[in-house]
Amino acid sequence: MPRIPALATKDGGIVLRVIDRVARRRFGAVPEPMAVSAHNPRVLWAGLVTELFAERVAKELPVSVRELAVYRAAVQLGCSWCVDFGTMLQKHEGLDIDRLKSIDDYAESPLYSRQERLALAYADAMTATPVTVTDEQVAELEAEFGRKGVLELTYQIALENMRARMNNALDITEQGFTSGDACRVPQVTPPPPQAG
To answer: What is the pTM of this model?
Structure first.
């Protein structure tokens, strides 16, 4: 149980009721970090706006690169809520979640592409305390993804560091998005191939 309990939807007013409805439709449940943040509506709004804009600007990188880097930061920081939610997001993007079991061996694993390995190493370097990012690492990322891609990747990893550290501080743990009843949202099914 979190150090600050989740605010019940009925106690959160109209804003939390709207958030509840949207979140249940999108994720199958209200993410607990949102329900905890609802005790301070300004913090809740700041988080919602940040997440909405972060999602909308994530256009430069391949989805697998971005999602794996964010997931790696969550793993490195030991945020079980972020790992649970991140796995569900990858599943809904149609990504191979079985390979997440080998995330610690990404540097040598054939399950990860060169681009993914670069992003995962960057996530490790950004998440380390102190940060261990090098000029060479950023130059290699820029050659691979361009400046816009490096900035998007940096922002997404930094945002995950904030999420994971906040969840860890408040003891918000996995919610069952990948293993329990919390997420009943159907997986995205790709359209059948067109006959040509």
So the answer is: 0.90
